[in-house]
Amino acid sequence: MDQGKVKALLLSVAIICSAPLVSLAKGAETGDKATLGAMEQKLFFKTYSDDDNEARLARIEKRIFGDAVPGDFAQRLERVKTAVGPQVNPDGTVTGAPAEPVAAAPPPQPVQKADPQAEMERARIAVMAAREEEVAKLLAEGVELWRQKRGPQAIERFEQVLRLDQHNSEAHFNLGVVYESANNLVEASACYHKAAEENPNNRDYQEAITAVEKKLTARKKNDDKAGELRVLAEDAAAAYKRQEYFSALDLYKQLDAKAPNKALVKYNIGTLYFVTKNYTDALVYYKQALKLEPKEPRYQQAVQQLSANLKAGEEAQKQNDQQWQQYQQATGGVGMDGKPTKPAKKDKKALAQQQPQQMPPQQNYVAPAVQPAQNIDFMAGIGIIAKPAHDGLQIVQIGIASRAAHVGLQQGDLIKAVDGNVVKSMADANQILSRKQQGAPVQLMIQRANQMGQFSL
């Protein structure tokens, strides 16, 4: 036999011998896929037939044992089949059961009853697996919605997670993040605390609690300050309505010290100076208000009008001074009666007549302004309304939040003296108070019943 025929014969024998082995390998692989598919359907309610057998087995191991198990594929598959148990297919065949020899028929086996405990455990594992998968899906959806700035929808997803698993710390934390981004700090703090209770060792949760608590503290301080400013403004407005101009001015000065960049407060202080005929200080505060809000028409008008009137008054006084000097030079400083002449006093009434007709404070802080009073009741300016009585002035009303109220004066008290001067009429008191500078302390001698006392306002 020649050499070529020998080689052909040997090749044919090799092909014939290897064919059963390939067929067996393909059959084994098909059986593994069927087994994996049955277990996937039981655990995940779906199959992953597009993945390779190794990835599918690892996924099942993670679901059952918590992580993939290294080792031989066949041994790992047997271990998983034992843990999951056999699957009965709709056609009556059993998938996942140990393979039986084909050559010999198995001996009859007694029918074994299913173990109820095992069945319950397998059912519990399946439910837990499905729930965990749903939780993971909802968490991912919530995070994506929050990134898309769809806060309400994100909150809905995280709340669905908590309905499935009320102890899910990640859902509590994510809810806190969404609430904090919406500036709902109270809800955010509650969610962060719940997350920390479920997982005390998570550092991110503790840092989130610290950060949101700082924000809450700062907000409380701001709210407290705003409340204090609101009370001062309301008291000042009430004092202005009662025409207690000096009390209102004092309250606005306090408000200005606590909120120095409020144009409205500056304007109202200027108006109160204007009402009490302190035009120079009124102009100073009008200018400060205009500097803070240059486009406000009221501030512009107040500055322009008062500046023009003050300038006109100064020009008139300057002209009077020049005329006086000329007269002095012509007469030698001696009048017709032979006595030295004196320069004319500044005409304050003329200046007052050149005031703007009305510069009302804006609302929200004081009531609408009235025309400036020509004869100011200085007692009302410190919060006292009184009437003449025997040997003094009897207090009939005390202004709320006024200087008189702060020092403890009461209705019915009898004012015997002001700054050491005995007073018997309102004119006496007003004459004494009119000589004092704005804000200067006032000493009152008070008789209450049969006792005498000194009060400093």
Q: Would you give an account of this structure?
A:
This protein has 457 residues and is α+β, with helices and mostly antiparallel strands. Among the domains are: 27-90, no CATH class; 119-201, Tetratricopeptide repeat domain (Serine Threonine Protein Phosphatase 5, Tetratricopeptide repeat), CATH 1.25.40.10; 261-329 and 352-361, Serine Threonine Protein Phosphatase 5, Tetratricopeptide repeat, CATH 1.25.40; 378-456, Pdz3 Domain (Roll), CATH 2.30.42.10. Helix content is 61%, strand content 8%. The protein is built from 16 helices and eight strands. The chain has helices at residues 3-44, 53-65, 73-84, 116-147, 151-164, 169-181, 185-198, 203-241, 245-258, 263-275, 279-292, 297-331, 348-353, 378-381, 403-407, 426-434, and strands at 87-88, 94-95, 384-389, 392-398, 414-418, 421-422, 443-448, 451-456. The strands form two sheets. Strands 3, 4, 5, 6, 7 and 8 form a six-stranded antiparallel beta sheet that branches. A two-stranded antiparallel ribbon has the order 1-2. A hairpin with a 2-residue loop joins strand 7 and strand 8 (451-456). Helix 8 runs antiparallel to helix 9 (245-258). The longest helix is centred in the first third of the chain and has 42 residues, at 3-44. It is elongated. The model is unreliable at 13-25, 334-338 and 348-375 (pLDDT under 50).
